[in-house]
Amino acid sequence: MRKSEKHDPLVAEIERELVPGRFIRYDEMSDFVDGLERVSKELSSLTDKDAEKAVRLYELFLSGCYEKIEECDDSGGYFSMFFHDVFCGWIKARQAAGCQAAETIRQILKWAEHDDYGLCDQIERVLAKALNREEYQLFVAHLEALIEKAMPPTNDSSNKAIFDYGNDVRLPALSLKDLFTAKGSAAAYSRLCERLGFSPKDCEHLAEMEMAHHHWDKALTWVEKGMALEPVRNWQNECAYSLAQLKPKILTKLGRKEDALSLAWVEFQKNPCDMAYKALMEHIPKGDRAEWHERAMQAAAQGALDDFISLCVAAKDWERLAARIHTANHSELEAVSHYQSEPAALGLAKRDGLAAAKLYRALGLRILVSKKSKYYRHALKHFQQARTLYRASQKPMEWEEIVKKVHGEHSRKKGFLSGFHRIESGEPEAQPSFSERAQERWNQQMQ
Fold it and tell me: Does residue 224 lie within any of the structural domains?
């Protein structure tokens, strides 16, 4: 940096916003990054006026951000995403200043080589949009050369996945895939896979790129290839779970609506869940939806209880949901996650109090059985709801069974029982004291 720029107001502002020496907590990161973004906008404006100076200040800013990472809790990834944006701003400034493309790529590669904190991880997708044509071609050529150098003389790529290769091939290949995906370069992506092997995930990416270009026939070819590859081997993280959902959408675009509906129905029958129901209904004319809803719910009734509960909530079929809850035994309901049970109980509370009470019973006991004391306050709320609903439904004996079970099987949970006694006696819910709230906050912080 030039001596004349050492006292530049922007330099002072960069230092002020980075607050060197002060640790930035997780809950402060959003405000911290907001301050840095104001600096970034000023540097972007400077690029239009004095690009050479902007390059030098961007370099200072990037280096300062890299120094700051040790003083940040970036669990949420805010700082890393911001770093990507600043990195792209630096590239744009270099372009405006007329810097050589080869030198820009050399410096990018040096940043990646000396990145000990992972700030450049998965940066390729944003780089693809920031690099100009010459820079992009040089970057791609460099990565392709790395793969060429590391590849064995003979390579059988059939049924091979990217994780079957060593890092000297795998890492540049993943970078290339990110670049090609960001650019929508299906042809380049396909050529790379022809060399290294296709996985279902590759086919999914290729299908999505072709769909973005409205190349529906090509997209269908990739979907079908990916679905054919799925059973061939264990693909680990190279599986693609959305291929079956993409195919009906593509068939519809090709004018094959009956085939799309037939396929969506087959997929729903395989996995009758709320997501599959939504996908199915997208292919059904409005006038036929009542009939298809009935068919779908009858098919789903034979499936897993948790999926059926989520499906009924999504379809707002409260009557059918209540009927299923009434026939389920308590142990079955206690096995259902609260993610499914809570929305169902809330929806049923004003429609079928007994069914809702049964769910609240299961929710409370599920927490007690798990012995997770930090959630006992939630269990108390569930039991309070169960008591209210059972009494309103003229079923006090059902509540008494809960009381007997809690005292018989959970008598050692003294902290929980003190609150449960208040519910038994009908006392209003006690408001926690300051010390109790403070302890609860501590427990939450320690999770």
Answer: no
d(CA 220, CA 249): 10
Residue 5 pLDDT: 59
pLDDT at 364 > cutoff 90: yes
Residue 168, classed as helix, strand or coil, is: helix
| C-alpha span between 250 and 265 (Å, rounded) | 15
Residue 146 covered by a domain:
no
In a domain, 410, yes or no: yes
**What per-residue string of b and e applies to 310-330 under the rule 16 or more CB within 10 Å gives b?**
bbbbebebbebbbebbeebee
DSSP β-bridge partners for residue 24: 72
Which of 132-141, 342-351, 424-433 shows the lowest per-residue confidence on average (mean pLDDT)?
424-433
- For residue 379, being part of any structural domain is answered with yes
**Percent of the chain with pLDDT strictly greater than 90:** 70
Residue type, 354: L
The phi, psi pair for 19, rounded to 5°, reads 35, 65
Whole-angstrom Cα Rg for the chain: 29
What phi and psi values does residue 358 have, to the nearest 5 degrees? -65, -40
Q: Whole-angstrom Cα distance, residue 158 to residue 228?
A: 13
Comparing 1 with 224, which gets the higher pLDDT? 224
Domain boundary residue, one of 119, 139, 157? 119
| Cβ-count burial 194-227 (b if 16+ within 10 Å, e if not) | eebbbbbbbbbbbbbbbbeeeebebbbbbbebbb
Structure tokens at 79: 């700082």
Write out the residue range of the structural domain in which residue 404 sits: 304-447
Contacting residues for 348 by C-beta, under 8 A, at least 6 apart: 318, 321, 322, 325, 355, 356, 359
Of 66, 93, 119, which closes a domain?
119
Reported as a pLDDT band with limits 50, 70 and 90, residue 372 is: confident
Helix segments in 282-433, DSSP class H: 289-300, 305-315, 318-327, 330-334, 338-348, 353-370, 376-392, 396-409, 414-425
Work out the average pLDDT over 30-40: 93
User: How far, in Å, CA of 387 to CA of 399, rounded?
Assistant: 6
Q: What is the C-alpha to C-alpha distance for residues 340 and 13, in angstroms, rounded to an integer?
A: 50
Q: Give the dihedral of Cα atoms 311, 317, 321, 324; nearest 10 deg.
A: -90
Q: How many domains does the chain fold into?
A: 2
